[in-house]
Amino acid sequence: MPSASTAATGPAAADPASSAASAASAASGAGGTRLRIASVNVNGVRAAFRKGMGDWLAERDVDILALQEVRASTEDLEGLLGPEWSILHDAATAKGRAGVALASRSTAAIHRVELGAAEFDSAGRWLEADYEVNGTLITVVSTYVHSGEVGTPKQVEKYKFLDAMLARLPELAAHSDRVVVLGDLNVGHRKFDIKNWRGNVKRAGFLPEERAYFDRIVGAEDAPDYNAGAGLGWVDVGRRWAGEVDGPFTWWSWRGQAFDNDTGWRIDYQLATPALAASVTGYAVDRAAAYDQRWSDHTPVVVDYFI
């Protein structure tokens, strides 16, 4: 892509998923299909396209694109992406806020937008769709978790959403053994996920209570300090692929030298069921080459699966 470089990492050498990914890659000519799924918080899709998102998308050969913080109408999305994309969009209740979408080269078989109890407003933050890929059912979820703010109703809403998400994941896994939940989850799970983690332990996005949800989803870091129950066995594709290294970060503040100094957070994820995670053949964070080439404060997370 002209305006960005792709930061990619290889699978961790000691990781058992590495052999599965290598085997899938080696078999890529044996009748399977590469499924490239990309996710990005666009921070307003119209502004993102004005700044160059279209160039990135044209070069990335994406099969399914998950968007968060769309902040636009379905008609806007259709006009920006073009007729070659099949678009699902769930807008937020409040106009101009949040909004999630899934765009795909093939039409989804079915989609769902409800999350949690009827009185809980998840509009614009959770969108599920089922796709048939090479005869296999793949469920993809685009989600945008609340950013939260300590000591305010915003943090209460964030916990409500995470509770609903935690309850939904086992249901999704029962529905299909190949599911990926992806998007801006607004939590750094481990110290590797934030450049200056020590200074953020009392800040929304890295609170022990927030990280506990990820302990449940993918397993505790070293010991069950924050673990409140049995793990769900999902896989953090980015961490499994990158290994025990800082980042690769996916969000940087617009302010100061955060981007230039790589003082970022890894809060954009692809969380997959074990069967789908075992088929990963590539993972990349498409970090812009320079500050003035960014079209969002987040960067795309791109994963190749072999189906």
UniProtKB/TrEMBL annotation:
Statement: the UniProt record of this protein carries the keyword Hydrolase: yes
Pfam families: Exo_endo_phos (PF03372)
Superkingdom classification of source: Bacteria
Keyword presence, Membrane: no
InterPro entries: AP_endonuc_1 (IPR004808), Endo/exonu/phosph_ase_sf (IPR036691), Endo/exonuclease/phosphatase (IPR005135), ExoIII-like (IPR037493)
Positions of the Endonuclease/exonuclease/phosphatase domain: 38-298
SUPFAM superfamilies in UniProt: DNase I-like (SSF56219)
Keywords associated with the record: Hydrolase, Magnesium, Metal-binding
Family annotation (PROSITE patterns): AP_NUCLEASE_F1_4
Cofactor(s) needed for function: Mg(2+)
Annotated PANTHER family: EXODEOXYRIBONUCLEASE III
Family statement: Belongs to the DNA repair enzymes AP/ExoA family.
The protein's name in its UniProt record: Exodeoxyribonuclease III
Organism: Cryobacterium sinapicolor
